[in-house]
Amino acid sequence: MRLSRYFRRTQWDAERAREVEAYLEIETADNIARGMTSAAARHAARRKLGNPTLIREEIYRMNSIGFVEILWRDLRYASRLLRKNPGFTLAAVASLALGIGANTAIFSVVHTVLLRALPYPQPNQLVHVGGIDRPVDVTIPEYAFWKEHAAAFSSAAGLRGVSNQTLITGEKQESIDVLTVTAGFFRTLGVTLALGRDFDSAETQPNGPQAVILSDSLWRRSFAGDPQVLGRVVRLGEGSYTVAGVAPRGFWFPQSADAFVPLRPAGNLSDRGFNTEMIARLKPAISLRQAQAEMATVTEDYRRASADPDYTGLSVIPYREWIVGDVQTKLLLLFGAAGLLLLIACSNLAGLILARLAARQKEIAVRLALGGSSSRLLRQFFTENMLLGLAGSLAGLLGAHWLLKGLVAVIPFQLPASAPIQLDLPVLAFTLAIALGAGLVFSLSPFFSSSRLDVHETLKASGRSTGTGGVRQRTRNILVVSQVALSMTLLVAAALTIQSLYRMHQERLGFTPQGLITFWTPPTPARRRNPVALWNFEAALLERLRAEPGVRSAAAINVLPLTSQNNFPVQREGHPEQSIGGMEIRLVTPGYFEAMGIPVLRGRSFNDHDTSSAAPVILVNETVARRWWPQGNPLGDRVVPCRFQGKDLDGCKEMPREVIGVAGDTKTVELKAPPRPTIYIPAAQATWYTGGMNWVVRGNLSPTFAGELRRAVVQMDPHQRVDRVRTMDEILASITADSRFDAWLFGAFAALALALTAIGIYGLLSFTVARRTNEFGTRMALGASRADVLRLVLKQGVALTAAGLVIGLAGALALARSLSSLLFGVGPTDPFSFAAVSLVLLGVGLLASYIPARRATKTDPMVALRYE
Amino acid sequence: MLQGTLDLLILQTLLLGPAHGHTIAHAIERRSEDVLQVEHGSLYPALHRLENRAWIASFWGTSENNRKARYYRLTPAGRKQLIEQTSRWERLVHAVNRVLRPAEEQ
């Protein structure tokens, strides 16, 4: 067998043609010799030979590998057809690319964030321990108690957020992220240090020696990977730290850090704040359920030990769940939305293909009549669709690359990804799978209807589709109805998230954010050690800022609304039953309420006479006033910070304070939560406070304003740092960023879905109208008015839309329910949203039907009938 | 004509010497006393098949009455094949005859 026969077929074929010709000549010569006329002789020879083309074809086929041959030919034919219909091809490839691209990009994120196991040994044993019905972070006493008493834990650790500090090694200075963790942090995660040891017991004492564990990258970057680094002393922030260990290469933690320092009790009030994140590793034999059951017991024990009857306790959740948290819901919703979009794109494409198939009915019929087998025809269509699918997938993959970059850049929430988010092999496999799936979905419908082709009917009908059209029409109706239904789902999601965003913006903040600029001044090391000097500097800065041109008012506060929290227990004097454990404490300079636009409802606000030598005073917010003095007058009464149910907390330098006013409620920690009980203390009287201040300046927000303020600070003290310069509006925007992202995303998906659906409806009705031109002509010839015809077509469009709406309602309800954690101020079954979406869809359906309907009314009866 | 017998007949015909398609067809018809009619529609594909299997080889020559024609000749492999197939054919005929004989006796 020679391979060459597959390649030199043209030449072979020519030889055969000559051979057959030679035969004919010989036979003709023979026939003439038998006495026939030359014409008859040739004729007889031909008859004897049979069809020379068939013979050649048979030999040709012998020299081919059937399947590949046919595939190749189909591919060439398909690509020629697709090139000839650039509009169709572009629409098909673009909508597929969009669907596949969006899905691929989102799957890359889902794959890395949700499907990958945490990079620790036995990650299922890791749990997060958090408070119930209060901030999830725990206090130091709670942490210590739980670590000791929870038998389900094989080990536990606490940590506090990452802070940015300056590392000084010899001559070099760099800014690094430092994570504060308890001893046992690495052990709990199941990670062995590459070098050195964990923090020891002395290093975790309030005034013990300081130690630091380096990350692998910091060790390599700044210590040249020196194995002798252990024991070296480095300067970090204001202290000297001994290098105790080096974390292993590739160590990952959700809060990425360059170095780890010991978390130790401060021995004062701050230990009682909800400020420590707690993680634990369960003993191997303990299930999550058992651990949860034990938490209730330990909660009881702690309630007794702390003599706090209102103590709500701690509970455990799998650590993975804690890390992905909200992100999981969001990503899955995103993924779902992208999936719906792809489905809509597919059904739209199926509609397009069906319409094209209808236009090609004659071609198909002719091919069938000429002996094309119906399986060959099906294979041909299949090849065409798969070619479309392939092109769409390639374009989608290309798009996904950019889409992914954009998505990761605009996602306003932290993606807890333990590996880089990229288009890797599993993602490509996923893309291939959905591309094939999509190809099958939109290929199925043409498959179903074309095997029923009837040659005679079609040829007889000479272009007017009848008979077989019924099946196809039903398929197309189903496609359009499902598009409407799917769009309804996405539109409802969009309507709900947009409304949530709107409601958030409508929330009463309790202060006026417009025209406010804020910045943060951390204390210099010298002033941190001297609270009096710190306050003197701040008082002077306040004067200076107020004197700046363009400044209408200025003030400072320790914690800005909606940015963070700072709470400790406070009691109304003489009323142990009136204690609030998590009272928010705000230290403010005079003029704070004026600058923020917070009304002082009763009494007065602070002034320059409320100094450390004057009588201790306090303002409470409305929530506190309502709770502690429901009817009475709070003014003149006294509250005691650091006292809880009659017991004074150790290490607190506060004192009983007289209430001199009631301030209006403001949003406190979260925009979505009601205001928290808050007290305001004059910063001048908080002589124990050594933290930084947030300045709020109301003035003309010219582009140079922030720079002028910064200059004013630096002129007072060139060593004073100025950080986090933001307008209040920017702060608010960052708080609503998540909701804005949701609204944009669902809005975009819904808009695309709506557009695709409109095209779907339009396409279907245009097709119907074209098919029924005759019928309309006849109707009009028999006296139907243009309005009648218009109504006829519109009715079909509206009926399909309405059917889709009804079906979509169920899907929308289901999606909306899973959306409810993202919603704010609007329920998942919000009737307004559902009604609005239904109206919009009906309107779009009507509009999309109107254009073809109008075309139908333009039918000239004479032309239509003559067309027959 | 039985499937495969045409191949056998072509090979047998070519045993006598090279021949072109027309001659092969005529030879078969003549030697079977016109019982076997060779359809040209199957002759040429069969020739092609045999050539693909390298049992016969072809060349262009001049026919008896001076026309260009494609001649086929038997290759050594074809000769071997012919012997094999002939014996197989004889076995088949023998077997069929044995089956048919009892019917004659009835």
Low-confidence stretches of chain B: none
Oligomeric state of this protein: heterodimer
Summed up, the helix count of chain A is 26
Number of strands of chain A: 23
Sheet-strand content of chain B, in percent, reads 15-25%
Mean of pLDDT of chain B: 84
Beta-sheet strand percentage of chain A?
A: 15-25%
Could you name the ranges of chain A where pLDDT drops below 50 across 5 or more consecutive residues?
462-468
Largest sheet of chain A: 6 strands, mixed, barrel
Mean pLDDT over all positions of chain A: 85
Number of helices of chain B: 4
Shape label of chain A: elongated
Query: What proportion of the residues of chain A is helical, as a percent range?
Result: 40-55%
Calculate Rg of chain B over CA atoms: 16 Å
Describe this structure in words.
The complex is a heterodimer of chains A (868) and B (106). Chain A is built from 26 helices and 23 strands. By secondary structure, chain A is of the alpha+beta class. Chain A folds into five domains: 62 residues, no CATH class; 195 residues, no CATH class; 180 residues, no CATH class; 169 residues, no CATH class; 198 residues, no CATH class. In chain A, the strands form four sheets. Chain A has a six-stranded mixed beta barrel. A six-stranded mixed β-barrel of chain A has the order 13-14-21-16-20-17. In chain A, helix 15 packs across helix 24. About 1% of the residues of chain A have low confidence. Chain B contains four helices and three strands; from the N terminus they run H-E-H-H-E-E-H. Chain B has a three-stranded antiparallel beta sheet. Chain B is globular, with a radius of gyration of 16 Å. Chain B starts with a helix and ends with a helix. The mean pLDDT of chain B is 84.
Summarize the structure.
Helix content of chain A is 53%, strand content 16%.
List keywords for this structure.
heterodimer, A: 868 residues, alpha+beta, 6-stranded mixed β-barrel, 53% helix, elongated, B: 106 residues, 3-stranded antiparallel beta sheet, 4 helices
